[in-house]
Design a protein that fits this description.
heterodimer, A: 365 residues, alpha/beta, eight-stranded mixed sheet, 16 helices, 44% helix, B: 346 residues, mainly alpha, extended
């Protein structure tokens, strides 16, 4: 009789089990040996340009005088995660690569909202912060327009901003950005659409009224629940039974730091984002209101590059690719990479191609 | 040696080895060492958890270390449960359908074990006395402020400090209300709290807490049920492999297969209307309980003149609105200045 349906006898299983346990001790020792600075994130030198409440604008200066570009780039990242994902480590930093290609890059850091920010709305983020950042950058570089890169939820913000303030943007790049929030029946959709499950899994209004801001950990729990065993168990067990190089372990720790560094969400903005975008799909219906001006994606007539992750389980490709049906531009380009939502910024293979792709596309415009 | 003895010996040897202790259990040891095994399991868990000594500056390292340890412990529990099940069904796997019946029986046994704490708690809550005691225990866990609240409630103090309950009953509610709402509310500290309002708030919180417990139980039972569905699938896959003359080659492969399979099962579960309904029910209950707790807190804070959350939120809202207006005015002024400058230039 066997202990488990595994091609090993009981002694063999015992040996593997003991080895696995010994590995726990080894990995814990290896983790302890990693220097704290090795886990620090932020590889590229930056300068603080502007502080608006808890929001900051940072400038990463061009590192290539010979290919210096006249027009700077502003990157708007999602509110739900920290933007340092774009500068995780030197060899996998979109920001570092772009500055080496001659771009001045600006990145908005949304900070960590406090209870003081619970009334900040989605359009406040656009008008009180993004718009001021855009004006500041234009003034610093004496230009009328900048290039805008929007990532994930930041991509949604960049679409809303460009549709209402297109005169300040020369080129728009969206990356892993949801556009048609009902394009598929993903788990997130099932939780937030009453037409799929007869009710929503949460009541955003009640949540905000009850707790003000939405805890970042609650948002992260939602993401982890999409693959609970892979992300909560197997990922860590995979560190056992194989020799993990110190550099690999440091990379792992940096990514973990990012994954679990979730700012709380300003209550009003979060409620609007869930209700207007996820539940009611208002972006493609032209029903998003930015300080009295309706967002019509058809108003986006400037060149658009839409970057999509083929295996994205958070923003399904169909949701991003829907952009082609709604923007008004005739200069629309798509680029897809065979990775997941996070992989597009941490995969060394993608980072070897993506900055160049962006550079070549911008050079043509 | 019976299957149970064999399994117990295996795990005893394992824990004794990782703990650096000599195995004391042999095939001849009488059954019933479960307490000793459980003790070893607890000591091993404690030792793993204590083996990390990261300080606050190592938050990420500490987090990952804890995740690795808890993953290892989860994996051990799964392996133990799987081996228990496998040993029950294996003799019959190549022998027709009987293994299916034994699989269902074993899973039912595991279900009873997993559900037991929830069912016990449910049963406690059905009894009004133990239910109220559980609620008070919950209040105590909320912190010292709640202990004050409990003493407030238990002494049932009233606007007329020093009057006992019996006297209170004789006091007309009209007098109590008028006095309470006028002079007595200014007397001193804790006595400023309106007893009737406070009692109503506590009752609301108690109801909200009870609703939350029920929602939590229902949610946990669904999760256990789905975990068992995934586990049954895993066992059926193992049977399929053996029947095909194949086998997984390692524990890591077994755990990998489990993760993939369980994620598939839970993906479907999390999308089901039943789950969505239960999650909604749970989150609503959490939020409602949070609100009633906030009201309780406010009842105390307002008695001491401390600003409440509601008041702070209102102040924040006004500040936010003013901030917006100032920014819009600044922009308008800048625009007017620019127009004025260009007009002067022309």
């Amino acid at each position: 009789m066997s202990f488990l349906p595994i091609g090993k006898d009981t002694d063999g299983l015992m040996r593997e089990l003991l080895a696995m346990s010994a590995d726990v001790s080894h990995v814990l020792n290896d983790i302890e040996a990693v220097n704290v600075p090795q886990v620090e994130i932020g590889a590229t030198p930056k300068e603080l340009v502007l502080t608006l409440d808890q929001v900051t604008l940072n400038h990463y200066a061009s590192q290539n005088e010979t290919t210096q570009k006249a027009r700077p780039i502003l990157i708007t990242y999602a509110l739900v995660n920290r933007p340092y994902m774009l500068d995780l480590q030197a060899d996998r930093s979109l920001i570092n690569h772009l500055t080496r290609l001659g771009y001045d890059v600006y990145l908005i850091d949304w900070g960590y909202p406090t209870r003081n920010d619970r009334w900040t709305t989605f359009d406040d983020y656009l008008m009180m912060y993004v718009d001021v950042c855009v004006d500041t950058i234009c003034e610093r570089h004496a230009v009328d327009k900048i290039d805008l890169i929007g990532i994930c939820q930041g991509g949604v913000m960049s679409l809303c901003y460009t549709a209402t303030h297109g005169d300040k943007i020369a080129n728009l790049i969206t990356s892993v950005t949801p556009v048609d929030f009902h394009a598929d029946d993903s788990t997130l959709s099932a939780w937030l659409r009453d037409d799929l499950a007869h009710t929503e899994a949460i009541n955003p209004q009640a949540m905000v009224e009850s707790i003000g801001n939405i805890p970042g950990d609650f948002i992260n729990l939602g993401f982890l629940m999409l693959k609970p065993f892979e992300l909560g168990l197997q990922k860590y067990l995979n560190l056992l039974g194989v020799h993990v190089e110190a550099d690999t372990l440091a990379n792992f720790l940096r990514l973990e730091k990012w994954i679990f560094d979730n700012p709380d969400q300003a209550g009003a903005a979060w409620r609007e984002y869930v209700e207007d975008f996820y539940m009611h799909n208002k972006l493609i219906k032209g029903e998003i209101d930015v300080y009295g001006e309706m967002v019509d994606l058809a108003n986006i007539t400037l060149p658009v590059l839409n970057i999509v992750a083929e295996h994205d389980h958070l923003v399904p490709p169909a949701s991003s690719l829907a952009l082609r049906d709604y923007v008004g531009t005739s200069d629309y380009t798509e680029a897809t990479f065979p990775v997941g939502h996070v992989g597009i910024y941490v995969s060394s293979r993608v980072q070897a191609k993506l900055p160049k792709l962006i550079d070549e596309w911008l050079a043509r415009h | 040696m019976t299957e149970t003895q064999q399994s117990t010996t295996f795990w005893h040897t394992f824990y004794a080895t990782v703990l650096g202790e000599a195995p004391t259990l042999t095939a001849n040891t009488p059954l019933g060492p479960s307490a000793s095994l459980e003790d070893m399991r607890v000591r091993w868990t404690r030792r793993l958890l204590e083996s990390t000594s990261f300080d606050a500056s190592d938050a990420t390292k500490k987090h990952v270390a804890e995740k690795i340890i808890t993953s290892q412990l989860t994996a051990l529990r799964l392996i133990e449960t799987a081996s228990e099940t496998w040993q029950a069904i294996e003799p019959y796997v190549l022998d027709g359908d009987k293994w299916e019946l034994l699989l269902m029986q074993t899973i039912q046994h595991i279900r009873q074990r997993m559900e037991a704490p929830i069912l016990t708690h449910q049963s406690q809550l059905r009894n009004s006395e133990t239910r109220y005691q559980a609620y008070l225990d919950n209040l105590r866990h909320q912190g010292a402020i709640w202990q004050n609240l409990q003493s407030l409630y238990m002494t049932a103090h009233n606007p007329l400090m020093g009057i006992d309950n019996a006297t209170l009953i004789e006091t007309s509610s009209l007098h109590s209300d008028i006095f309470g709402n006028s002079f007595a509310s200014l007397l001193n500290g804790q006595g400023m709290t309106n007893t009737k309002a406070l009692q109503a708030t506590i009752e609301r919180d108690f109801e909200a807490w009870f609703t939350l417990q029920r929602a939590n139980h229902e949610y946990q039972l669904l999760i256990i049920d789905q975990w068992l569905c995934a586990f049954e699938d895993l066992m059926r896959q193992c049977v399929g492999l053996v029947q095909a003359g194949e086998a997984l080659d390692s524990l890591q492969a077994f755990l990998n297969r489990w993760s993939q399979l369980a994620d598939r099962v839970f993906k479907e579960t999390f999308r089901s209307p039943e789950y969505v309904q239960l999650q909604r029910q749970l989150v609503d209950a959490v939020m409602h309980h949070r609100e009633t707790q906030q009201l309780l807190g406010e009842a105390l804070l307002s008695a001491y003149g401390v600003p409440t959350r509601r008041e702070m939120d209102e102040a924040h809202r006004r500040i936010h609105d003013l901030r917006k207006q100032v920014q819009q005015l600044q922009r308008a002024v800048t625009m007017m200045q620019a127009q004025s400058d260009s007009a002067e230039g022309a």
